[in-house]
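Board notes (copied after class):
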Amino acid sequence: RIAYVIKHSANSYSLQVADADGANGFTLLRSSEPIISPAWSPEGGRLAYVSFESKKPVVYVHDVSSGSRRAVANFKGSNSAPAWSPDGSRLAVVLTRDGHSQIYAVSANGGEAVRLSNSNAIDTEPAYSADGSRIYFTSDRAGGPQIYVMGAGGGSAQRVTFEGNYNVSPTPAPDGTALAFVRREAGRFRVMVQETATGQANYVTDTHYDESPSFAPNGQMLVYASEQGGRGVLFTVTRDGSTKTRLTTSGGDIRAPVWGPYPR
């Protein structure tokens, strides 16, 4: 399954779940305030996301089958960008409670947050590696946004992207063999796939505003958001960029797709 957000109007948003081809969609949550950053749990039964329903960004975990949910990060300031650990026990989140955006870990049931990144920059968009040992993230610590990696428990970070001056939204493949991300170049936002073994990165999309790449469970395809006619639409693309398919989804401005795991 996939999940994504639809903006129906200026004050109407919904979080949708559908089959991987976009069929059989249903609404998990409706809100008059924005919903962003959905993230599937490793077992496929829960979705984390950010809701602005309390007039500030708060991270929730939502049980897909029962509909129950709880706020797991509602600290002072902004709470955003949830990312599941591979064992499903915790989330990496981005908090501004100490002044600027830094990465923290919090239990999937809520509780106190433990700071992982420690810089004077903006550290955001965390994503656990497939084995859970590392966290990829975006940071402007070198002046512009680039992708870095650190241990899952925090500590020093190493830069991962060196070509281009704007690389964001790291998304590791489920098998650990590649990293997808978004590069801005000459005013165009395109999805890249960088092979872990060689460091070689190639474009897999070729339009002007492609974002939010997410790997399929087999690591051979990605879903991403693009724009057509001024509205957000969803596409899938093979890992080598050779085949693209637009998904048929219900109307509205569609953003932030995420491909769920095989249900356990």
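Comment from the instructor: The CA atoms of residues 36 and 50 lie 5 Å apart. DSSP finds no helices and 24 strands in the chain.
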